Amino acid sequence: MPLVVILDLAVGDGLTLEQAHEVAAVAADVGVSAIRVSDGPPGELALLDAGSVASYLSARQPGLHWIVDAPTTHNAPYDLARRIASLDRATGGRSGLALRAGDGDAVTAAAADDLPKPGLPVDVSGAARPNRWAEYATVLNQLWGGGQVAHEGRFYRVSGALEEVSPQGLPLLVADGRDDLDRSAAIALADVLVVPRIELVDGGDTRLTEAVARSGRRRDQVALLARAGIVRENGRTTASELARWTTAHALDGLELATTGGRDELIGVLKSVVPRLEPATGSTLRQVFGLPSPIVVG
C-alpha cells in the first residue's frame, strides 16, 4: 500500500540553495510524495524564508509537492495566508503550510495593541501558544475558504478577503506534534498531524485515533504521520522496518528527517524512499488521500 513520504529539507542552515536544488531533483526522480521546507526553529528569524525557497525550487521542479514551514512568530495571518495561497495557485494545487506554534508578530501588535483581550491571561513563556496556534489556524481556513473575513479574537483581528482560489479547494494545513498542541483541537483545524515517532510507543496509535474521534471529524478527513529520524546506511532494512511500523500504528505515512547535509539527504532518498512506494497525486490533497473541502463563494 502506498505511503505518504515527506522529506524534511532545512535550507539556509548547513544546506545552500543550490544544494537544495540538487536534493529536490533527486527527490523528483525517486518519487517522494512531498518536500517540507523549513528554515530553522520556530520563533527565530530565518536565514532564508521557507516560502521563497519553495517558490524557487518549485519553478525548477514543477512536478513536486511542497509544504512550507512557518511559525506564528513574525508572520501576520493575512500575509501568510496570501503567500501560501499564491504558491498553491502557482504550483497547481501542490502546496501547503506547516503552521508552527510561536508568538506574535509586529503587524498584529501594531494593528491591535489591545490584544489579548482584557481579562484573559497573557502569553507567558509560551503557555498560550497552543491557543494562539488554534486561532491562527482558524483565520487561515476562513481566508482560504473564500468570502469576506471579519475576525476579532483573543490574539488576532483580521479583516479582508483573498482573491486567490486554490486548485485543490484549500491549501493543505499541517499541525506539528512537537508544538505541544491540543491534539483534538489541532486535528479539528488541520488536514495533517505529524507526531514524533517516539510518541507512538505504548499505545500512542490508540490515543491518536481517540483524538480524531474527539475532534468531530472522520478518520478519512485527516492524515496521521510520524516523523522518523533516519540515516542512509542499510536503506533496504530501514525501509522495510519503517513500512511495518507504519502499518502497525495505522499511520498514513512518514516524514523523513536527517541531520546530514546534501550527501546524506541524497543517500536517504535513493536507498530508502523508492522501497516505501510513495503515494502520488496531481494535488497535495490527493497525495494524502484527503477529500476536497467545501469552499465558500
From TrEMBL:
<dbReference type="InterPro" id="IPR036661">
    <property type="entry name" value="Luciferase-like_sf"/>
</dbReference>
<dbReference type="Pfam" id="PF00296">
    <property type="entry name" value="Bac_luciferase"/>
</dbReference>
<protein>
    <submittedName>
        <fullName>LLM class flavin-dependent oxidoreductase</fullName>
    </submittedName>
</protein>
<keyword id="KW-0285">Flavoprotein</keyword>
<dbReference type="InterPro" id="IPR051260">
    <property type="entry name" value="Diverse_substr_monoxygenases"/>
</dbReference>
<dbReference type="InterPro" id="IPR011251">
    <property type="entry name" value="Luciferase-like_dom"/>
</dbReference>
<keyword id="KW-0560">Oxidoreductase</keyword>
<feature type="domain" description="Luciferase-like">
    <location>
        <begin position="16"/>
        <end position="247"/>
    </location>
</feature>
<keyword id="KW-0503">Monooxygenase</keyword>
<keyword id="KW-0288">FMN</keyword>
